[in-house]
Amino acid sequence: MEVMSPTGVPPLPRPLSASRSDPERRAGVTPGSGTSVNTGFAGILALLATIALFVAVHFMPDSYFRALLIDRGPTQHAAVFLGVWSAVILLLKRSKLKIQRRALTHPVIPENYEFVLSSRTADQVIRNIHAIAEDPDRFIVFNRILVALSNLKNLGRVGDVDDILRSLAERDESAHQTSFATLGGFLWAIPVLGFIGTVLGLASAIGNFSSLLDQQADVSAIVGSLKEVTGGLSTAFETTLLALVIALVIQLWMTAQKKAEEVFLDDSQEYCLKQVVSRIRILPFEQLGE
């Protein structure tokens, strides 16, 4: 998309809009900034999806998968819910990252190489950004440039603008790390739920074994009853198995998403360097005024 400039450029297509494209905003909830997700909204979606999953599994024919989800106790249900919640968060983050990346394909500086970015021409670039996006403050890279250019008009020094951009990049990096905090908590809780299920299953099996010893005097009867106890032990360990599989899938998915967002932040920093820092010039009258 080309930006309309004073020299005359064809009319712009429909401006970018993070709010219009954001799935959280379209659902009528307060969206997270950047690639952050509204955890409560994601939890509601995950709850509905989990209920739908268990209803569908309930009507499935008897199978190992059905028994694994339905007949292993409440800890299985909680682990599956947290796994679905994590998946919803990652899907929303992927959608938000895709929206943020659109900004990197639109230059904010006129392609004319004679254009000089200074305190006098900063307003023109700001107007270009507002022409590209309806809500530029919601785009990470545009927000950085707007803040830097607003300070350029006051400071007038290239080094100061570069420092501001670096400071904003560090802030975005910190926000990026924080946006994964909830997922980190879920990845800790899911295996713990599996271990709790296993402990509960073991406690139940040991209790059944004690009852069998009290009720059975014949050794052969005790041996036959032990089959039920060992079957209960197998069921107990399956709770941990499911939890570990869920945690493994979420961990790998989260690692891929985190890497994609880190690459985006690096691309945003490079974009700012090329579009802003490398095009800034301090005019002679500005130097005299310092």
Brief summary:
The chain is mostly helical.
Tell me what you see in this structure:
- The chain has helices spanning 18-21, 23-26, 39-58, 64-70, 74-102, 122-132, 140-155, 158-178, 181-215, 219-275, 284-289.
- With 290 residues, it is mostly helical.
- The protein has one domain (18-289).
- Helix 5 packs antiparallel against helix 9 (181-215).
- The radius of gyration is 29 Å and the shape is elongated.
Q: List the uncertain runs.
A: 1-10, 284-290
Mean pLDDT: 80
Give the termini distance in whole angstroms.
Answer: 38 Å
- Supply the number of helical segments: 11
Helix content: over 70%
Note the overall shape.
elongated
SSE run: HHHHHHHHHHH
Q: Number of DSSP strands? A: 0
Radius of gyration: 29 Å
Number of domains: 1
Taking the sheet with the most strands, its summary is: none
| SS content category | mainly alpha
Q: What percent strand?
A: under 5%
Can you tag this structure with a few keywords?
disordered N terminus; mainly alpha; disordered C terminus; 72% helix; 290 residues
Give the SSE layout.
Elements: H1 18-21, H2 23-26, H3 39-58, H4 64-70, H5 74-102, H6 122-132, H7 140-155, H8 158-178, H9 181-215, H10 219-275, H11 284-289
